[in-house]
Amino acid sequence: MSIERFLDNSPSSWMAGSGDHSDIVMSTRIRLARNLNGYRFPLAFTEDEAHKIDQSVSATLLDADEEIQMNFSSIQIKDLSELSRQVLVEKHLISPKLANSPMTGSVLLSDDESVSVMVNEEDHIRIQCLFPGLQIQEAYAQADTIDRLLDKELPYAFDEQFGYLTSCPTNTGTGLRASVMMHLPALTMTKQMNRIVTIISRLGMVVRGIYGEGSEALGNVYQVSNQTTLGKTEEDILSDLQSITEQIIQKEKEARSALLSHSANTLEDRLYRSLGTLSYARIITTEEAARCLSDVRLGIDIGLIKDVDVTILNECMVFMQPGFLQKYAETTLNASERDTFRAKLLRERLQMGENPKTKGEELA
Amino acid sequence: MSIERFLDNSPSSWMAGSGDHSDIVMSTRIRLARNLNGYRFPLAFTEDEAHKIDQSVSATLLDADEEIQMNFSSIQIKDLSELSRQVLVEKHLISPKLANSPMTGSVLLSDDESVSVMVNEEDHIRIQCLFPGLQIQEAYAQADTIDRLLDKELPYAFDEQFGYLTSCPTNTGTGLRASVMMHLPALTMTKQMNRIVTIISRLGMVVRGIYGEGSEALGNVYQVSNQTTLGKTEEDILSDLQSITEQIIQKEKEARSALLSHSANTLEDRLYRSLGTLSYARIITTEEAARCLSDVRLGIDIGLIKDVDVTILNECMVFMQPGFLQKYAETTLNASERDTFRAKLLRERLQMGENPKTKGEELA
């Protein structure tokens, strides 16, 4: 199977915009960190060890295709161009760390891109499941299936007292990181995010912007995940995250209602202007595009904007990143050229999804 | 004939966007100030005198319909609602001064709105001809025809030494004010207007913004007109204005070329964003709308924006004013409601004129 399959412009399944609460929760991710007994951890291992680990993990997973009814492809990082690696990072299928481990790293990707198993990243094995919407239990069940499959064939580094052993002690124990990617424009607009971040951190969870740097998350997209992996069962970690996510969803819904009831006109104006900017701009920075995409997505979610595909934010936040843009342009691009291509890509994406006759209005 | 004819939303002929240099010169106006012998001037006259003047002028003009092959309607200001007066002012068919003279004022309007003869404004008679594009000689010829017609029947106040006598000495002599309304976005963007205004004023001409207050003309629309009416022949006044207008046209064209060659991308981005704002905004002030309309008109004129009607600036600058907006809304509107209706009217106007499928781009 061609690597191109994973690099082309087609969206990954996690961008589908389906799943519970998909108007607020863009995706759910489960990550399990595992290592194999009998090999040094990646910080210290030899290329030969890395190769053997890769072969064992790949063989186990590829042989189990039928059993788990998924088709996997194994990709060696060293076989990828720098641009291709970047694109996989931007699609959240591999980590930047793996992309920078060309000698030892590989990844096993399921056809629908919902499962990626990174081999020889920080740990020997990183099982990742990425589902659209709020699907914590579903994503965990998927990861658990892969985990059991590998566990059956391969000797995991496991300690009765500490649990799964990992390169970094912050992952030791369950090796589980569960996270939800949330679109929280109304909480951001009404300046409630700082307070929420503080409360959540007291509950052993972490909130961070998933795109961009700085205090305000790019595109108002935040990732909420568990901080601790040790001293809690998997079930507790998942149910705590579920509970906190549901509370944030409720707060975001209240903030959206408040905006709609107190400033519907200015809100509508702002959201439509952003649609106008995305539809017409010839030059646009990542920051502005993210802000506009967030506005348009909010407009769709609260029913003000119609005829635009609800997956616009999920997809475009990925596709407008440097790797994708250069793949799209089929050439290397400097920052200013990227701003031009970003604008072009966004216009084309909107023309696909929008009925331009109505410009978001019902025809009389 | 119904007064409604002049108040409805249909554009006046001067908005047609035709005529010489119509990419820069929006319209040409000729105004002749005349008074009748044997009556006191409007500052001092009685209502009875006003009534007699009105009857003489109206009768003369209405009787000559066939001779001059134009059909006129006589409208008494007192018969108009305040809103209707405002709309006629906004269409440049009557002056604010006439609108505020309900007891004595009237206007004779030609069907195509190219000629309006105000009666009992500052002077007994103000003949005005408004033509699209640069048509100084044509507009003057039209005004002159009306003038000769009236002169033949009515005794003008004329002095061998001073020429036509007027209420205000600044109009005495020829009574002629010739003006061109120019769209000068590139000279404004490149900050050359202050210099040009200074030079022009030294040549006995006046430049002012025709819409709005303040130093920068709303929508980058400037009116250039002769300052002096005395001591120059009509021919000299007209040819001086023609010459200065042509020089400004040349400067504006050079500035447009310079912008296109030095900053085509940022210019294109700016112009299209303005089209996006006009197409999508739900709330828009006069100032922002004027800026965006100027941008879109420039985009059309330099060939960057297609599928948008070239008359957009001429028409919308008129239609988005308070009187028209309230007529359109069929109710009185406060300032914030006007901003909402202005946005609605602009969107509707753009949907009429634009092929929305292309959003200004050629389809692949």
TrEMBL record, chains A, B:
Binding site for ATP: 27-31, 92, 126, 177-181, 208-213
Enzyme class: transferase
EC number of this enzyme: 2.7.14.1
GO cellular component, as recorded: extracellular space
Protein keywords: Allosteric enzyme, ATP-binding, Kinase, Nucleotide-binding, Transferase
Catalytic activity: L-arginyl-[protein] + ATP = N(omega)-phospho-L-arginyl-[protein] + ADP + H(+)
Regulation: Appears to be allosterically activated by the binding of pArg-containing polypeptides to the pArg-binding pocket localized in the C-terminal domain of McsB.
Phosphagen kinase C-terminal domain span: 24-255
A molecular function GO annotation: protein arginine kinase activity
RDXXRA motif of the pArg binding pocket involved in allosteric regulation (motif): residue ranges: 338-343
Listed GO biological process terms: phosphocreatine biosynthetic process
Domain of life: Bacteria
Stated role: Catalyzes the specific phosphorylation of arginine residues in a large number of proteins. Is part of the bacterial stress response system. Protein arginine phosphorylation has a physiologically important role and is involved in the regulation of many critical cellular processes, such as protein homeostasis, motility, competence, and stringent and stress responses, by regulating gene expression and protein activity.
Protein family (similarity comment): Belongs to the ATP:guanido phosphotransferase family.
HAMAP family noted in UniProt: Prot_Arg_kinase
Protein's recorded name: Protein-arginine kinase
Organism expressing this protein natively: Psychrobacillus glaciei
Gene: mcsB
